[in-house]
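Q: A reviewer asked whether we had any structural model of the full assembly, not just the individual parts. We don't, so I'm hoping you can provide one. Inputs are below.
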Amino acid sequence: MTRVIKLDPERPRQEVIERAASIIRDGGLVAFPTETVYGLGADAMNESAVRKIFEAKARPADNPLIVHVESRKMLGRIAGDVDEKAERLIEKFWPGPLTLVLKRKPEVAASVSAGLQTIAVRMPSSNIALALISASKTPIAAPSANSSGRPSPTTALHVIEDLAGEIDIILDGGTTDIGIESTVLDVTTDPPMILRPGWITQEMLSSVIGPVGRATLDEDFRRSPGTRHRHYSPHARVVLIEHGTPEVIEQVCREHLKEGLVGFIGHTALLIEDSSFHSIQLGKRAEDYANSIYSALRKLDKKNPRVIVIEGIEENGQGLAVMDRLRRAASEVISNS
Ligand code: TXA
Ligand code: MG
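A: Here is a predicted structure for the entire assembly that you could use as a starting point for your response.
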């Protein structure tokens, strides 16, 4: 049975944290909030515990996990060759939504890295996450706490939808702040390469360490195995409109309405009066989309639409990370219209 326990995200009750930490130490699974999305955590040094994560999520074994630490000292237990650039990034962005790919130490459970010689690590800024890692006294491997391929969870309810019965305990700290996953930066290469764009942008990284590359889609698939798999998707087919006038967006929605139920997520208000049309309007800033996109996808999916049409946003700064997720969720992209 899965227990859900509500916690104050600023000041979590220590007795609850201790209980969750003892589950981690005993090789169990704990879902917890981070500032990005909810994570599904296990002791990163315990092979059989880490395997439970892959089973619970039905995650392909070739998709490595992010390990969460609560101090620079704990990082030293799992990663080696932390060079000067990495130190500067840690100084500037930790705790926060930046994951660094570093050389791994052999003590880490092998399946965490899915056969790679590297390990992805971050220090989350959520107090619940930090308290849990600290009380567990071990680094915590945690992918997003969704079933593999589904939109990432930004509330405890999303975790329950996907993983009830599979986890021992869910720490409910309310809705996560950012809403999309961390930036993944490989610092084992020169220049360092962004493998997954996120809240910490290329410009923010460059301002601290100079040139930073961005893996092309092909390299992406090769170097960050996880990005190859289907991602962030609701059950419905997703149609992404990259750049569309209100007229074009409306036309696309009306076309699909001829066939059945249509969901729409966008910043443009559409004048479509139809009981088969369900629309969720968001602000047009990157943070508005990041905050709401996964829960909007889950909400519309419950109405069982034929398609969900999504209106894209400007692809700069943090908008890049949002558009990356939308493209991966989409099975059709309409652009230049
Ligand atoms: O914000 C986040 O990063 C959330 C919270 C829970 O911390 N976690 C998360 O984990 O998004 P997950 O498992 O859903 O995504 C991990 C990503 C995948 O794209 C995976 O391929 C990449 O990190 N990754 C992990 N280890 C890697 C490694 N050694 N080399 C390259 N990429 C790696
Ligand atoms: Mg994920």
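A: Points you may want to mention in the reply: The two ends are 50 Å apart (CA to CA). The longest strand covers residues 98-104.
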